[in-house]
Amino acid sequence: MSVKAGNNLDELDYHTGNAELEEEDSGSSIDLVTLWHVVRRSIPWVLLLVLLGLTGSYLFLRYTKKVYESSSVIKLEEQTEAKVLELPGAGMESDLGKLQGEVDLIKSDLVYDRLKKNMPLQTSYHVEARVLEVELYNDSPFRVTFDSTNFDLYDQKIYVNFESRTTYTTQIGEEGEKSKAHTVGTPITLSGNNLVVYTNSRFNTNHIGESFYFIVHSNGALKRYLNENLTVAVLNPEAKTISISFKEFNREKARDVVNKIDTVYLQQKLSRTNQASQQTIEFLTNQLQETQDNLQKAEIDMEYFVKQNKSYDVKAGLEGAMSQIQELEKEKYALRFRNSLLGDIQQRIRKDDDLTAVISSLQLQEQQDPQLAQLLTELNDLQAQRRKVLTTARGNTLSVGLLDQQIKFAQEKINTLLKEGRGYIQDQISNIDRNQSLLTGQIMQMPSKETERARLIRILGIYEKFYLLLMEKRVEFGISMAGTIPDFQILSPASLPNESSPIYPNRMIIYAIGVAAGLFFGVGLIGARYLMHNTVTSVRELERNTSAPVLGVIPSYSKEKMPVSKLVVNQNPKSALSESVRSIRTNLDFLSSSKKKRLISVTSTISGEGKTFVATNLGGIIAMSGQRVVLLDLDMRKPKVHIALDGENIKGMSTILIEKHTIAESTQRTSIENFDFISAGPTPPNPSELIMGQRFDEILQELHQEYDVVLIDSPPVGLVTDGVLIMRKADIPLFIVRANYSKKAFLKGVDRIMKTNHLTNMATILNDAPSTNMYGYSYGYGYGYGYGYGYGYYEEEEKPTLASRIKSMFS
Question: Which residues is 245 bridged to in the sheet?
């Protein structure tokens, strides 16, 4: 027979352009069918990855200590029942700045020191568990006392193992040497440190043999522990509320620390609030004592004068002069007192002492200096701010330096003002002395006894009046102190955190991360498998990657395990495989309906794609339809037809081509009527030259005289050129592609062969297709006739077992 070259050039151009478009489409877009196939195949792996992610989340939660947080909310609210001696300038500080100052105070060393004294934080007790170590806060079956003045085992694990109720052993660190047995309650020496171990009422026999240890925390470690876990923040500046929270592995400890911080903060606030008031009380008390002494001396002098003179008579002419002298003396005493107070202020400023008391004293005087009081108040506030910055944990040299400059400037202004004030007072005293001298000169003319009496009465009256004034002020200030309450209240005290709701780790978030990680790696797996997917799995991929029409689909044969190709259509004529081959036979009739004699070649790219299986069973199906069929095995390098049809390979096509045997001598019968075959025969050294010879064409002509269909099992075209030579002679070249075996790159070779050799009638068959690909899509395009014909009455394949299903899912 001659080589088929196609109908015309236009048809060739059409197929060539169509192939180029298909190739371009396959390389520039996503194959959704292939992607779905990969996704479906990867679902078990994705589920396994998600399960691994959940397992990892569970293990993380299982072996991670839970962190609990307890918090309280306090509100700053200064209230007093009686506001006396109120300093000017109070309340000028902004609310936010004051709140931030309180935050710094709570986190300062003052509060930490009190907290350490009021809570058992320095020594912590632990027990080693199988999974996590647990701190025995307020639940330890033993306690330890030690000499803090001579102790150097800070921040180390000291193990205590009870061998009985009365004996125990110790060990410093995990690698330390175990000591001999000690007696409970007896002092021991451990690396030069003296300590005593006691048991308490919680100790029982279950604790014998358990591994306990305790840690004595140093001040630095304890401060770091508090700083790292304590959070103090302004909650609402307008409402003046502050939030105090503490994080800990032990939820009871977290609650107790917050409550204790509230308590020590209250104590610190009360102490700081009463400090200024106490200084004022001390100043008033000292002045009262001094005035009382002067009053007693004046009373004694008056009593002595009366005893000596035995008279209180005063001449009427002396009343005016005496009254003026008395007023001048009173004014002079007040000026001296003020001069003394200003001198005291100068000394306190030089010593950088607290000025609260002297400010209060200034306000007690009848003649007040508003400017001096304001400057003293500002200086006192600056000194208080400097002390606060120095005592808080956040103090820094920059802010202290700025405050020192402001304090120095204020001191210079006050010293200037005090110097001017004292000079003015001294001038006034001099004027009073001159006036008194004039009045005294007038009185000198009076009896000296009357003058002395008037002087004593005058001094006695002054001291008595001033003493009563000081008494009244001290009582009023005492009442105001009694009416002062703490300037904050606890709106929300610390509560015991819920055991099932730690702040870390968050179960929902951890499990969500596990699921997300599983899905992420699952999507990555799908993407990698899709990018690495280089085999044909479905009809859709076959259509996208080649321009040759798909003649049909042969499903996977699971009836029995076949190590080699076999003729099976006669054994299971109603199976799905037989029906699919019938569908191919029907479609072959459409391709060559005008020819009664047909030459069909069956080839593939490489060995193992099932061309012998397809050729054998296709020949059997065609023969079962009444046509005479002969199958030629031209794969002379690796013949398999005689194995599939249970024949011999002593003589065959190789011996016929060299005219050693005739066709009749080499033809063998099969179990199917009208179906014969000729094996390949002994392997010749030059198969390609034999096929290219004239003898091969003569053999085909002879066979067409006796048979309706000549079916050729050709060699793989990807390995040798024999297959291409045979395809040129065939009426219908069939190219076999095996699902999940044939590479997509092979299909490019199909199009290349079609273009190069002008094989316009070439068709492809998808072999060994999974049932899901076959039933779900394959028969919906062009070759559904045969499928519809047999569907519903053929014998069902055996149902796969659960193990085979799982295996196929992960394959």
Answer: 71, 231
Q: What angle do CA 575, 579, 585 make, to 5 degrees?
A: 145
pLDDT at 10: 37
CB atoms within 10 A of CB 332: 20
**pTM > 0.90:** no
Cβ–Cβ < 8 Å for 811, 38: no
**Residue 25 or 159, more confident:** 159
Return all residues near 172 (Cβ < 8 A) that are at least 6 apart.
153, 156, 157, 158, 159, 190, 191
Q: Are 367 and 334 within 8 A, CB to CB? A: yes
Report the mean per-residue pLDDT for the chain. 80
| CA-closest candidate to residue 573, choices 621, 612, 618 | 621
CATH topology of domain 565-805: Rossmann fold (3.40.50)
Q: Can you give the residue ranges of every domain in the chain?
A: 42-64+506-531, 68-121+226-311+481-504, 316-446, 565-805
Spatial separation of the C-alpha atoms in residues 391 and 612, rounded to whole Å: 96
Query: Is-same-fold flag (68-121+226-311+481-504; 565-805)?
Result: no
φ, ψ (nearest 5 deg) of residue 45: -70, -40
- Decide: 675 and 643 in contact? Cβ < 8 Å: no
Region 388-411 average pLDDT: 74
68-121+226-311+481-504 maps to CATH 3.30.70.1130: yes
Percentage of the residues of the chain whose pLDDT score is greater than 90: 29
For the residues 646-666, what does the mean pLDDT come to?
92
* Number of Cβ atoms within 10 Å of the Cβ of 353: 15
pLDDT at 664: 92
User: Exposed, middle or buried by CB within 10 Å (0-12, 13-18, 19+), for 759?
Assistant: buried
The pLDDT of residue 81 is 38
DSSP state of 170: E
Helix (H) or strand (E) holding 746: helix 744-757
Q: How far apart are CA 240 and CA 510, in angstroms?
A: 37
Q: In angstroms, rounded to a whole number, what is the distance separating the alpha carbons of residues 772 and 273? A: 85
State the virtual CA torsion across 428, 431, 436, 442 in degrees, nearest 10: -160
If one counts every other C-beta atom within 10 angstroms of the C-beta of residue 36, the result is 13
**630 has which bridge partners?**
676, 710
CB burial of 84-98 (b: ≥16 within 10 Å; e: otherwise) equals: bbebeeeeeeeeeeb
Residue 568 CB partners (closer than 8 Å, separation 6+) = 557, 559, 562, 575, 577, 578, 617
In angstroms, the CA 450 to CA 454 distance is 6
